[in-house]
Amino acid sequence: MTPILTTALTGLLLAGGVLAKHDIVPGAAWTASNTGRHIQAHGHGITYEDGVYYMIGEEKSEGSSFQAVNCYSSTNLVDWDFVGNLISRDDSEPDLGPNRIIERPKVLKNDQTGKYVLFLHVDSSDYKDARVGWGTGDTICGEYNYLGSSRPLGKQSRDIGVFKEEDGTAYLLTEDREYGTRIMRLSEDYLSVEEITMEWEYFAESPAMVKRGGTYYIFGSHLTGWNPNDNVYSTAQNLSGPWTEWTEFAPVGTNTYSSQVSFVLPLGDDNAIYMGDRWFPNNLGASEYIWLPLQIDGNTVRLDWYDNWSVDMEAGTWQPGFPYAEYEAEAAELSNEARLLDCGGCSGSQMVGYIGGPQGGTVSFDVEAACDGDVTLVLKYRNGDKVTTTTFGARNAIVSVGGVEQTVDFPSTRHKGGQTAESVVQTAVKEGSNIVAVSGADGWGPDLDVLLVPGLSCGS
Ligand SMILES: *[C@@H]1O[C@H](CO)[C@@H](O)[C@H](O)[C@H]1NC(C)=O
Ligand SMILES: *[C@@H]1O[C@H](CO)[C@@H](O)[C@H](O)[C@H]1NC(C)=O
Fold first, then answer.
1. Where does the record locate the signal sequence feature (predicted)?
2. pTM above 0.90, yes or no
């Protein structure tokens, strides 16, 4: 087995290199620390307060119709805890009943009223309502009081975003299928729309905006349903314009790395993080989060792909990931009936199946670490389970690292056409040998292809 890279990597380290870090792995399953489930915060926004990031988005485990708006919290954008529902299905409230559409929840704090204001795209299942819904809450992740929905200034409004200026003035970003895209100024309490600040006869779906220096950057996608397209952006010095021509920011043809913009989070003074959804229409609950650093230079924005990268929110910096060592499951120790299976889409054309189950099949990897540290493990897996209306075909496994156990989610990979998927495990290792054991949680676990372990930077 390959030991975690040590000396080779130390040479790559930046001065004052990090001793420990957790990586962002775009496109992997991200298990919330306290639920054992893939994060259900699709169409998300992030609201920041007092050193904590709140990821607010849609529960999609039962498909496209409204189930709940969920809130997760994190201090580092990597380890997420589920906190609660802002709103959930409510048969006594017509907008929130079964077969309704509630998408793209966004929360802003109103500094004057002290209330948290929740903005929603509210629709009927045929998308004819095209309204904005409002709610208010006293705490960011607590229950919200739903206030109802309307068409802003009488205009259709589908996917929305919001933007708050330093002076507290806030704007609704909205797409009107009869016209195009608008920026609308909100009232002082954020509970209604006052006026149109800017409008384009151009469709930018799921608009998201960030301000860096004196420049505004607005992002949006074309209209291709759940399928991804080459998303676009425009910039201006004034919200009323003039705005630059809409243009792509990721390499054309990648369909924005198969994602749709949902939110753009400021990072430090000059940087920002692109946050998108990679939708799986046949398994919406398994839809993945594509988060990548945006490279901003004046009016130019570029998005490069990184298999993994890390961010230091406090310092406002990010860095690409280190090379990972690969531990094939077929070379690991198998016990309790876990056994080798052929797998065309796997590295080495083999994987290990029969993990979990009645016999408690287990795969144990012996991972050598050069020092103590936080690491992000990546497990490549397959799970051929059918997706039903009430599950995203997830299988759980208990992943134990040096005896510390956590439940990790492995959503169905049926929609990947035989390819493997990735699930990440945010954990810590100790200097020397670490046994990483994967066993069942309840029922069968996933079939495992390979365990990837990043190079630890151990200082010099
Ligand atoms: C932005 O443009 C509007 C409309 O032209 C103008 O009234 C406003 O003063 C401008 N704001 C700034 C900060 O220049
Ligand atoms: C992480 O990124 C590095 C380089 O940026 C790459 O070598 C490595 O394979 C990546 N690991 C995973 C698990 O994607």
1. 1-20
2. yes
- pLDDT tens digit string along 293-304? 999 999 999 999
Report how far residue 97's alpha carbon sits from residue 61's, in angstroms, rounded to the nearest whole number: 17
- Kindly give the distance from the C-alpha atom of residue 307 to the centroid of ligand 2, in angstroms, as a whole number: 5
Amino acid residing at 179: Y
Q: Is the pLDDT of residue 6 over 50?
A: no
Beta partners for residue 401, in sequence order: 404, 436
Q: Which residue's CA is the closest to the ligand 1 atom numbered 9? A: 238
- Nearest-5° angle of CA 5, CA 7, CA 8? 70
Closest ligand to C-alpha of residue 166 is 1
Distance CA 173, CA 377 (A): 38
Between the CA of 238 and the centroid of ligand 1 the distance, in Å, is 6
Domains of the chain: 4-18+323-454 (2.60.120.260), 42-320 (2.115.10.20)
The DSSP secondary-structure symbol of 127 reads S
- 320 CB near ligand 2 (under 6 Å): yes
Residue 424, Ramachandran bin (φ over 0: left; ψ between -120 and 50: alpha; else beta) = beta
- The answer to whether 171 and 186 are in contact (CB under 8 A) is yes
CB-based contact 455:63 (threshold 8 Å): no
Ligand 2 mutation pick, 21, 322, 422, 426, max ligand atoms within 8 A of CB: 322
Is-contact 39 31, C-beta < 8 A?
yes
* Spatial distance between the Cα atoms of 63 and 201, rounded to a whole number of angstroms: 32
Q: Return the pLDDT at 95.
A: 97
Element (H, E) at 256: helix 255-258
Q: Of residues 224 and 15, which shows the higher confidence score?
A: 224
